[in-house]
Amino acid sequence: MNKDLQINDVSKNTEKLATVKNEDLMPLPADFEEKAWADIPEETKGKYVCILDDVNILQIPIPKTVEEEEELVNKFINGMRKLFTKENNWTFLSMLETTMEHCAKCNTCSDSCHLYEATGGNEMYRPNYRTEIFRRIYKKYVKKEPFSRWRNGDIDLNWRTVARLGEMAYRCNICRRCAQTCPIGADNALVAREIRKIFSQELGITVPELHDKGSMMQLKTGSSTQMNKIVVRDNVEFIDEDFSEEFGYDFKTPWDVEGADILLIHNAGEIMAWPENIAAFSMIFQAAGISWTLSSDLAAYDSINYGVFYDDVQFARTAILQAQAAKKLGVKKIVLGECGHAHKALTVIADRVLPEGLKTPRESCFPLLRDIVMSGKIKFDPERNNFPVTLHDPCNVTRLMGIIKPQREIMHKLCPQFREMHPNGPHNYCCGGGSGYAIMSRNNIPEWRFKVTGRKKLEQILNAFSDSRGPEIPKYVCAPCSNCKGQLRDLFERYQLLEKEKLTYSGVVELIVNAMVDVKPGFIKWGEE
Amino acid sequence: MALLIYSIVYLAIIVFFFFVIRRIVSYLNNPIHVRWELYPVAHEGKRASYGGSYLEDVDWWTKPREKSKIGELKVMIPEILFLKAVWEYNRPLWYVTFPFHFGLYLVVAFIGLLGIGAVAQLAGITIGSGSALSSAVAALTNLFGPLGFILVIGGAIGLIYKRMTDPGLRKYTSAEHFFNLGLFIVTMGSASLTWLLVDPNFHFARTFIANLISFNMELIHSPLFNLQILLAAFTIAYIPITHMSHFFMKYFLYHDIRWGDEPNIGTPETDAKINIVLNYPVSWSASHIAGHGKTTWAEVATFNPVAEPEASTNKEKE
Ligand code: SF4
Ligand code: SF4
Fold first, then answer.
1. Using CB atoms within 10 A of its CB, is residue A124 exposed (0-12), middle (13-18) or buried (19+)?
2. A519-529 per-position pLDDT tens digit
3. Which of B35, B56, B289 sits opposite A201 (nearest CB)?
4. Are both A299 and A161 inside the same structural domain?
5. ipTM exceeding 0.90?
6. pLDDT band at B127, cuts 50/70/90?
7. Cβ-defined contact of A324 to B315 (cutoff 8 Å)
8. Do residues A341 and A405 both lie within one domain?
9. Would you say the CB of residue A185 lies under 6 angstroms from ligand 1?
10. In this structure, are residues A329 and A296 in contact, taking their beta carbons and an 8 Å threshold?
């Protein structure tokens, strides 16, 4: 059924468009039992359109009347029209138009997609499948190209087409691995994001984790974690005290220091889920004698920018708040902590959004950490890191920013048993949490993240440790990105990798601090040891 | 009759350039877009080999930027000439699409050589006799033309076969794909027949181009030759209207988008462009954008629809 799926099936009155069966899943280098899909809860099914596959991510209210069905279609087409105007979409118009016009439909990009591979070549996951539907709608109903049916293939546009296309935009990690292989330079990942934009920016239909509890929460309270400035400072103070005591290394995280050289922005999720990451940065920066600060301004103590995943306006709002905070403090630069999408959002995409007065330079933490480690200012004992370590490359940092070597130089200096996973660097595979899924645990979404989106990464990790499998040897996946860590945390838990493989994950800074001679040993832990 | 044939060819050339220029101008007229680069970026000097970028340096904005044109050529030449990405990621397709594309390059080179020969002919030099250069032009013309025709025909038949038999490709293939490939087969087929039956040394072809250049509308008395000319004219005019315009638009897709990593530091012209787009009106309808009395991007982006009192922005302290 899934291989035979046709483009026009998207418009048909069927219960589901596709399903991923366990027997079709890409085999893993270990025996893991896969269960059947848990049903989408009745409550969700009663409220939102669930006609794509076994999962529901985008919350499209079920149209109850023919008028509502038509309204959904009309609003979508209106949004698509706006998407192709320079006024409403100057941000991505050039990329979108060229992808619409020049794709040769050669399917060269298909095999590069980890979702397509993980599902055994399920047609719905072919990178070009959703693009082709989108393209046909665009050519026929928006561009109104003469002979469109003949030139581009036909499409029947009804509410099911629109609803399924919207949901399908959330069956892609927007990792852009497919775009990398395209001989023309077309970009199917971009199309997934542009569809998400129509739903958010025109129809007001979003994913709650990204919008209401994500970017809107950040604009409201300062962080998607809901921590306001008082709570965040309290929490970090607690981290300072706790880790200072436990590791015999007295440090204090500076806040709102005017004129500091560096404004460091963490993903605030770290404060809640991985406080050791916050502590590690503070310890390293203090040990290196760096002039730095955190900011307690709105959105400036949380580097996340979920707009990157679905909405240009939300993106711009968040980036501007962060840049305003840097300007207010008068810092020389902003340094992004270990969060991939935040790296790309503020360093690269915001580069042509921030107006002249807000252009405080932005850089990644990895080159700075590399320079600190290599400077000789801190004494290290690499023997403390003498366990197998592999490095996961967050797509946003590597494929989309070209920051490849700094983190590797640190690994080579501090981790005697460092080994690469393959492929790596700009050709890496997404962890499976990319484009927002790492923070979604609603209904059976995690199951999908394990079975489908995270499957390739799991294979890569197991293969990287093929010489040290089993629970006897502690192993470490360095995943220097909050979203990737969220995905790995859940993936490892699902497949019991701590118990079965003594496998843990964390970032680069934890490895650095674990090797610092002035810090008590044992900064990295395997479970509750 | 002669007037009609020559007029059609002139028209085809005009249509070709019109659509090529229109596409390019339309792209260039688009407003500035956000950066959306994809690594490896070929001009990143030594770093390009592993997909690195200038962002690997601390204080990267203070460092001199190494931008290597050679690096770009090292990627572009194998990509254009040999379709490297298809070779790496879609080998079964490469076996048919490479001959097709390479055949087209040979045909373009063949037309170029005919052009050189035509100019020489107008200058009173007979191609194929006399100087070594003239003989070389003749020999290369005689090689590139037929070889190009055969490769294009073979490649196009292979592509049709692939598009019909590969279930994955079939779904994404429209009638236009078959028409385009069919058009190339018919055009190159007529060119091959003309070469075999009427014009073995491309003397007619060279003379026709010389006539075109000198506006001397003299009829070539061969129906097959003229059919071939009309088909070629149609093909030339048709290509830039279709997705095949990727042959020149690829330049922008690579240089402006995939490798468009130019940072906005000390670039007043970029700031000026950003200033323009930030003043564009926004008409998105969702409630977090519309309905707050904000109309431009600058207004919408600096407005916080859920701000709690005292924290709407991070403005400088009074
Ligand atoms: S996006 Fe590129 S690789 Fe994929 S089908 Fe289109 S042209 Fe081929
Ligand atoms: S962006 Fe990544 S997940 Fe999405 S289609 Fe391309 S390769 Fe697959």
1. buried
2. 999 999 998 76
3. B289
4. no
5. yes
6. confident
7. yes
8. no
9. no
10. no
